[in-house]
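Most newcomers find our protein records easier to grasp once they have seen one. Read left to right, the backbone structure tokens trace the chain's path through space. Nothing more is needed to start thinking about how sequence determines fold. An example says more than a description, so a record of this kind follows:
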Amino acid sequence: MSAIPSSSQSHRSAHRPTSGPPSSSSGSAQRRTKVKGAKDKKRPARAGALRDVTNSHTNSLSHSQTRKKPRSEAQTPICASSEQEDALEGMILDEGFFDWRPSPESTPLKPKLGRIPSGVKDEGRENSFSTPGGREMKQEKEVKLEEEKTDEDVKRLLEGAEHWDWGDMLSSPVKAEPLLKLELGEKLFRDPCTRCVVESSTVTSGKREQHVQARIDHTSSRILLILRDDWSFLPLHAGDTLNVHAPLLPPPSTHSPDLPTIVVSASQGMVVHHPDVLLPPTMVSTASQCTRKPLVSALLRSSPQGGEGGAKVVLWGNLLHEVVQRCMTASAPPTSGAAHAWTPDLIDHHLRSVLYSRTGVEGCFRAGVTVDEALSELRRRSSGLIEFSKRFMRAEPSSDGVLKVDAQEGETWLALRRTRGVEEDVWSPSWGLKGKVDASVQVSLSTPKAGFFDSRTKGERQVRKGTMPFEIKTGRPGRGVEHRAQTMLYTLLLGERYEEEIPSGLLYYTQSAEVIQVSAKRNELRALLMARNDLAEWTMGQNDGEAREQAIEVELGDVEEMAFLPEPLDDPWSCGKCYALDGCMLYRRTHDPLPVPSDMEDLFVQKTSHISSRQATFFRTWERLVSLEENDMNRFRAELWTMTAQARESAGRCFADMVVIPLREEDKRFLEGDRKIHTHTARFVKRATITQRGETLLNGHISVGDPVVVSADPGLLALARGFVLSLSPDAVVLGLDHAVDEEALKELPIKDVADLVWRIDKDELSTGISRLRDNLAQLFYASGDERRRSLVVDLDPPTFASNPAFDPSELSSALNAPQRTAIAKVAAAKDYALILGMPGTGKTSTIAEIIRMLVRQGKSVLLTSYTHSAVDTILLRLGEVDFDVLRLGNTDKVHPDLKKYTLAARPQATTVQQLENQLLLPPVVATTCLSIDHPLFARRKNRAARKGGLDVSLFRRLSDAHPEAVVDLTLQYRMNEDIMLLSNRLIYNDRLQCGSEETARRSLVLKDKSPLAALHTGGPCDGCWLEALLDERCKAVFVDTDLLPARDSRVGDLVQNEIEASIVAQLANVLIACGLRPMDIGILSLYRQQIKLISHLLRSAPGVEILTADRSQGRDKECILISMVRSNETGELGELLKDWRRLNVSFTRARSKLVIVGSRNTLGGTLLMREFFDLMTEKGWIYALKPGAHLLHAEQLGCPSLPPMLKRLSEEPENENEERKSGTPPKKVKVEAHSLSPAKRAILSDIINAL
């Protein structure tokens, strides 16, 4: 036995260790980094096998008469009896026996023993592994095949032997169809899928085999996996996950005396490497010519536009897809033998309705064509639709609808009986694939009966019915190989979705009336899955978090990453037209400095000569940091299919056991507007009542606005995707892209839709990071903004005009001197200006005035921020203006008072000119940075990324380099002097000032305190805590709960504090009762679970805003109540309470009164909080609640003890940003003695990341 193959053997050697068996102790970092000077090993090309196999399709029709029928895939080994073995003794039979078909010759000529029969020979296999030892490997394969005839193949040759006519067979090698052959539409029967984790792997020294010791996932059971032929080259390492599609042979066997064994070879079984990496078939199919292209496209979300004019091609494709799908679904299914043809009026109606929709007109705007030009082109490209419908839209097949097939004796007739679904988003973790299928259709196929020597069947036909994927292609069949490959892979996806055997798919080009049948044959599928495995391996290498963290721990000059991407194709003609060219060349320049062939030098220079060494290092470093963050964000993705709904619900990332119920009247408000994702609305509740289950939907990570995946439990994954519209303890309302009602599900293999149970998972597959990486790359393209690149990357100083066109007299008289100085700085800026506004200093008012000034100067303004709420806060402050504003983004997340600025509120544009007016004429455009509902970095978890610099904002980078570009706002008009003192003393070195005496003396005066007095009608309340806190002189106070049983508790891996929530709710209720408007009260917490808990307690006061610290930015309230949550005997704080920036945001939202509720003993574990308590003690601003204080008025204020449904207590402390390893003892209270005092830090180095 030898070790895992070196570079001369492995097709992934440039990415894996050179020798030795995999070891879990070595870690993934060892296979992703190397010390400079180590020998670099070249990775052989891997696309050959897929290219050669799929190219065989192009010649299949011309060779249909001589091509042999491949052996059936579904075969189960059976043991022959002793009599059968005696009868076969001495016979020489091989696979050609089963491939034999009647021919004019008297005796069929079969290949010699030991050679690969022509019917199954893979012409591209030898080329796909053209390593230095390729010839020896080929000889080893031939020897191996010869030896296998004496063991494994004999069992297969005897398959179905009990039904053979032995006397007839000895004289004539004619065998009936295999008993387990599956026909179209039959119940799905494939080899079982075993999910396992690799523990060790070795390669035999004789005939090449890879023997893998693996453990069945989530069990302790171990198996032996034997990989032969092409599969033996899989680059396996300890910890890798495999899905093996092959029978499991129980022990003892010839392979192992004690372990169950799975054998996978060229003729049986399939292996899916890294199955949790779900790749789209479109990505796999494009790897046939260049493996690098789909990987670059996936990294940068490159749009496959195909070079010049590509935007138009994408437009035609998108619109025609929708037209064909509408025609297929809008028409009633044919009920008779006559064709259900589409009329010209029907097609033209759908063409116009699609084209004149908002999406269609926007597409024309992007492509630079008029609607009339688009309509003319769409009519030309849809010229084949009428004839297509006449031939194939039938209830039964006829001779008019001849199907173009790969190999068939006689004609095959096709009838498209019914459309089962369109744009189905199918995820298949078993095959490691996911994709949108254009349409799934129910078909009837009529084929000639196979008569062999019996002339009585001549002319007779047989009809088969079933489901097929229907792929719509709007161009010419120039990329036939890729299109066929996609169609083959869609047969696997739909086979799982509908639980049917789908041996082939349909491919239709709209400019013709022909439909092509694409058979999903074993050799082709095997090559496609190998290509998919190769892409998954590269993808895993790019997201190898452990290796990239090591690269950050070590100086960048000492560590060099292994190959980041496969070698490029280096074909000037093909590369010059490739849509991923810019990204490919950028990564070649920055990550993979490969030699450039002479015929590629001009193209390489054209795309990368502008990138300096410093800029290349910048891109490589930040790309690495982005990938680290991406790895953390995606680490839960596999839970959607590897964890049960109940297990994931216990972690707070899923709602399990849900059912759909009719919408309520109040839900109808969500049905308004024009949306791309939210096309259906559904209301879900727990199948059992809340009182029976003792659960609430408020527990967990899922909140309003979060993206979700909806699946039928178990088995039907990701039937719909969308986001949360509303959430209450007993119900959740979702906006979805697909319907989930009974009518929409009737096509799926569900026995009883009425009893269907759903699971709603938080979607971990956000594209925000990919968009961030793409924006980073745009800065480095040759077509990018050179000036902006020099400012951001090279840190060139910004320039300012000496005499700006600026009239100070036009500014609002309410602005103070620092605000006017900041506006003047912006007016003079030619590149950028930085305004550092401390809390309450009028940043929002300053920005609103800057917008007015720039519009007066005739300039256009882009207003952007991380959150929808921050953008809307500024627009609300802008107020009614005499110029137009365009608010882009999801209308469900836009403030109700600002929806008038959205496109959905404007008249539907029916021409490009009208849309141009709507998009280009408004001088102010407002949107979020990443079009997501929360800050990308607000929930950052990866420490290595932070350490590498990912938490350094662009503001900080620029302000540190050029402080002369910064203007400070120091006069604040929000907080009274007591509240301002907290941040001023702890953070700002006393630089913050009250802007007026009125601001400094502000206090909260309640209109009517009689409700407070009414609480004591039953008797005096000695030292009532509510009276003390509502005193007008109490402006800033810390409420200490150490004498109460107010301990934090866990909800899954989230944290809450029920007694603190009750205290805050009681205080809010009495404030409202005493005349304070609910809209003037804000409740903050750093913990999302606490927010949900308090929201439930105050559900009768909807005007009170209850927010996390991150979402409170830009807001201020007369009274702010803060729940600190953490209270435990071990002093466990977690990471959130160590983030002084979030605490600073929370402390500075109040105008007149600030009440902070928490445990002094627990919170005193950090230096910042110790300084905070020292200050509060010095001022006498700490109020200690007496034992039982939380119960005194709880019943009167509507806050009784929480019901059991809202309690899930646990002694284990929780940390929202870190998962503590099992068995780790709780941390003791520890003061950060070596931390620098925040008061000693320079403002520009610290505060800007909280903006």
